[in-house]
Design a protein that fits this description.
322 residues; 34% strand; globular; mainly beta; Immunoglobulin-like; single chain; 3 domains
Length: 322
Amino acid sequence: MKRLIMLAAIIITVFFICLNDNNQVLFVAAQENSIEEDLLQLPTFSHQGGFYETQFYLEISTDDSGIIYYTLDGSDPTIDSMRYNNPILIQKQYIQITGQGYSMQNDGTGQVIDLDPTVPLSMIKSSSFEWKSPSEDIFKATVVKAIVISDDQTSLVATQTYFVDENIYDKYTFPIISLSTDAKNLFSYETGINVPGINYDPFSTETRFNNKTGNYYQEGDLWERDVYFEYFSSDGQLNFKQNAGIRIHGGLSRNYPIKSYRLYARDDYGQDMFNYRFFEDKELNTFKRIILRAGGQTYKYTFMGEAAAQSLLKPLDLDIQY
């Protein structure tokens, strides 16, 4: 009877030694495993992300011999993405409401995004918390993600986010959080965390608000998606950036059109903590999770309800929401 023994040597080579019943070696075979090559340097952007009053041409370069690929839709670039050959025009961008779908303007890709409600159709038609198509064009940032790829090496993904408008410095009075990810992570029927999707049961005997089915009600690691998290001050300065995980947050509000999110710092994404002082009046600069609340049941009104209630508790020196 022959026995097969596997021994590991020097990490990268595995030796298979076949022995007979007398423990005599019959043959030795070596299997070469691929060695993880050193990563290429990140591509370099000619402009730092942030606020710009006028359009400009963005140049992306590399000190390595690889080819630069990039995306403008929030997804991570691959060898199948657009190849960088010429400077990219970065200009004021908006989503134009066409009635048939959202037509992305000035993004250079001709992309059309179908209307994809984040609540069941029954709620769109009859609920006071109904989803509604936007009534005007939506101003948006331009997210550029780039990677360098050669024959056997690659770089990590570099990301910059640009806000271009002639009145951009008057547009915001609060800090800005930019979350960029592949659209399928949020809106895919099978895997999107924002939509009713494959897990929604339209025939549930529960009432509309007790029907806790849908992709947005799924929990745990399997329903966490990767996201790139950026934190800008109200004047457009990039203060913090990090890869993270994102999940839907909340209870009943999970089926509202506007979602709340939880952001997770993990080693798998590069850093196991968010190391930044987000709250100026707190001596805290290390966080494992961050919750981005959408306003709960007041989301369709003033967004002030929770903020007003929490501010009443502030003099009591209690932990409050910000």
